[in-house]
Amino acid sequence: MSTSRAKTPQTMKPATAAKKLGILLSAAPAEFQEGVVSRDELNALQADPPAWLTDLRREGPHPKQVVAAKLSISTSGLARGGITGPLTTAEIEALKAEKPEWLRKEQNNLNEVRHETVRLKQQNAKARSTK
């Protein structure tokens, strides 16, 4: 005798969904902030974003992970540069145009870290292949 139960959809908190969508939760509409988001709803938002999501992704304000990525620096570099809150796309573009010394330094730091990571991966792969 088997009892079949309908599967309950997997849901997530709005903060988790916002992070997966790359948006700042506090900038999202109230109905998004106050509800739960199912996996299907998240997939639908990603596949066919509504106007509010498209606008938010284009104009911001953006969460620090997105700001850091748009500036080609780490989130730690943002903090070292004194950027502690979200920025709009216009503010990010202004920083890119101004290119202050701290931003240049952080971009160089991230590039060095990435090059070193690649070098170490290649070195480890070579060491494994010679065993």
UniProtKB/TrEMBL annotation:
It comes from the Bacteria. Keywords: Coiled coil. InterPro entries: DUF5997 (IPR046039). It comes from Actinocorallia herbida. The keyword Coiled coil applies. Residues 103-130 form a coiled coil. This is Uncharacterized protein.
